[in-house]
């Protein structure tokens, strides 16, 4: 066999090895990040805007598990998520204090609003206090649709009923155990009132026969955090990917993208990684 033949064989062998290596790398992408989050971040369209950009820039795919805040934190407690994105400060503090989460980081905020039928039979449009607004709904015999799912919105709603000194057990109170989108849809169909985060409201308002009737109460402030699930409890977590996503979201780039996300020309969330 000539030298040229040996050289050709060596080159072909090298090329084959490189092709196999490349194929193996293509078949072994970065592991997905399991993100447990609220229905508001998904149903508002925010995650559909952000996550493809994150994946394109980092190579990490993201598996979104959207539920209420209570269920999302429970996924973290069980090691079924790598990162949680939620909006219930008291529940998040308990999650971190119990050792299930680490590095809680402010991400963004919007606010809650009470929406209802345009004719507003409970007169909420004349009320500025959210608790008094709920009192009026009960006293006027109106229907209120509750998510009833231990989400951040439901937790906020319960604190407002408590502040109103009203037990949500009256005839018009309906707890449906659904996300924000279905809750808004039912309220629209029944001509009822409900509490919603502004982001999901803006994403859905064109489909609903409802109006914002009570807003601006400081108790309706709605902050979101991202929290790493503690790898000391679950060593098999994709903590590298989760940390990459958390850092990307709170970076100047990620914060600008959050601020740039709009529906019908309106920003749905205010980026707030510095917690100001």
Task: Please outline the helices and strands.
Layout: H1 3-26, E1 33-38, H2 39-43, H3 46-58, E2 62-67, H4 69-77, E3 83-86, H5 89-97, E4 101-116, H6 130-139, E5 144-146, H7 152-164, E6 173-175, H8 180-190, E7 194-197, H9 198-204, E8 211-214, E9 221-229, H10 239-250, H11 252-260, E10 262-263, E11 266-267, E12 270-271
Parallel strand pairs: 1-2, 1-3, 5-6
Antiparallel strand pairs: 3-9, 4-7, 4-8, 4-9, 4-12, 10-11
Helix pairs in contact: 6-7
Signal peptide: 1-26
Protein name: Substrate-binding domain-containing protein
Keywords: Signal
Outline the structure in words.
The structure is a single chain. It contains 11 helices and 12 strands. It has helices spanning 3-26, 39-43, 46-58, 69-77, 89-97, 130-139, 152-164, 180-190, 198-204, 239-250, 252-260, and strands at 33-38, 62-67, 83-86, 101-116, 144-146, 173-175, 194-197, 211-214, 221-229, 262-263, 266-267, 270-271. Mean pLDDT is 90; it is low at 10-27.
Low-confidence stretches: 10-27
Total beta strands: 12
How far apart the termini lie comes to: 75 Å
The global form is globular
Keywords: Signal
Domain PBP: 33-252
Signal peptide: 1-26
Pfam family, one: PBP_like_2
């Amino acid at each position: 066999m000539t030298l040229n033949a040996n050289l050709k064989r060596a080159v072909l062998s090298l090329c084959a090895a490189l092709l196999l290596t490349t194929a193996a790398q293509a078949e072994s992408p970065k592991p997905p990040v399991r993100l447990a989050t609220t229905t508001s971040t998904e149903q508002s369209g925010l995650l559909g805007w952000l996550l493809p950009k994150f994946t394109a820039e980092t190579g990490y795919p993201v598996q979104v598990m959207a539920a209420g805040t209570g269920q999302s934190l429970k996924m973290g407690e069980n090691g079924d998520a790598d990162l949680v994105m939620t909006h219930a400060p008291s529940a998040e503090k308990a999650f971190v204090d119990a050792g299930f989460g680490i590095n809680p980081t402010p991400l963004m905020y919007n606010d809650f609003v009470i929406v209802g039928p345009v004719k507003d039979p409970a007169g909420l449009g004349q009320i500025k206090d959210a608790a008094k607004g709920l009192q009026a709904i009960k006293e006027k015999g109106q229907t209120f649709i509750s998510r009833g799912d231990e989400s951040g919105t439901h937790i906020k709603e319960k604190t407002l009923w408590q502040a109103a000194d009203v037990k949500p057990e009256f005839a018009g109170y309906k707890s449906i155990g659904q996300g924000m989108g279905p809750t808004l849809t039912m309220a629209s169909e029944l001509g009822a009132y409900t509490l919603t985060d502004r982001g999901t409201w803006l994403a859905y308002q064109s489909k609903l026969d409802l109006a914002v009737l009570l807003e601006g109460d400081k108790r309706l402030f709605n902050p979101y955090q991202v929290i790493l699930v503690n790898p000391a409890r679950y060593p098999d977590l994709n903590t590298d990917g989760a940390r990459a996503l958390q850092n990307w979201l709170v970076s100047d780039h990620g914060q600008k993208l959050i601020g740039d996300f709009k529906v019908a020309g309106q920003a749905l969330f205010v980026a707030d990684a510095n917690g100001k």
